[in-house]
Amino acid sequence: IYSEAARKDRPLSGMLLKNTSTLTLEGGSLTVIEGDAYAGEALLERLKPGESRFISFALDLATLVNTRLQARREPVFLVRVTNGVFQAHFYESERKTYTLTNQTERARVVFVEHPLRDGWTLTNDTPQPSEKTQNTYRFRVELAPRASFELNVSEHRALMDTYALNNLSTKDLALFVSRNYVDAPSRAALEQLVAVKSRLADADVRLAAIEREGKEIGDDQERLRENIKALNDTAEARQLIARYVQKAGEQETRLEQLVAEKRLLLEERARLQTILDTAIRGLSLERKL
Predict the structure, then answer these.
(1) Taking 90 as the threshold, does the pLDDT of residue 239 lie above it?
(2) Nearest 10 degrees: Cα torsion 11, 103, 17, 114
C-alpha cells in the first residue's frame, strides 16, 4: 500500500482484513505472522462485523516508488458577463506520475492511495480507481517481476478570473481581444465602455486640478490679509495694500471662474456616470471557447 504522505519512496506491506464474525473487533495493536516468521505490526481501528479495511504493517523494501508532479493552467473555456463582472472560466490541472519498480523476482500488487481533494475531479484520461474512500482514491497496480509501471493520475478544478467592468482598462480589453474572449459586437460595447471611463477619468483629473488651484488661491488670500494687517499707515504701505487688494480682486474673479467650471464638470461627470452605469447593466455575454 503506497501513500506518499506516509513514505515517499517505498510502499508499506499490507493486507485486506475483513471481519467475518458477528462481533466487533476493537481497535488496538496487531501482530502479523507470515508463515512461521514475524512480518510486522500495525495499529487497527475498530472493525465492525462485515467491514473490510486495508492495514499496513511493515516497510516494503522490494518496491521503489518515484513521484513527479506537473501543474498547468488550461485555456479559458467559457467567458461570461453578468452583474457588471467579466468572468473568464478555466481549469487548473495537475498530473501526478507514480513510477513503481518491482526490485524482486516475485510479482507484486501495489495499491496507490492518491489524496481526494475538495473541488478537484479526475480527468477522463486517468484510470478508474479500484476504490474511493473518504479521503483517497485507491488505484490497483500489478507489477511483474523486475518490471516498472507508470501510473498517471490527472485532476482538474474549475477556476475563473474576474474583472469588474467599472474598473475595466484598455490593457484588460487588449487581453480579451488577443485571447479571443469576445466577439465583434461585445468588443465594440466594451470599447465604448472604456472610452466613457477614459472621459470620466479626464473629468476627475480636471476636478482635482480645480480643487488644488482653489486651495492655493485661498492660502494666498490668507497670506495677503495677514500682510495687510501688519502694514503701517504710510504712503508706501498704502501703495502695497492697493497692490494686494488688486491681486485679491483678480483672485476672486478666478475663483468665480473655477466655481462655474467645477459645476459644469460635475454635471458632465454625472452624465457620463449614468451612461457608464447603463452600459454596464445592459452588457451580457456567454461565450464558449
Answers:
(1) no
(2) 40
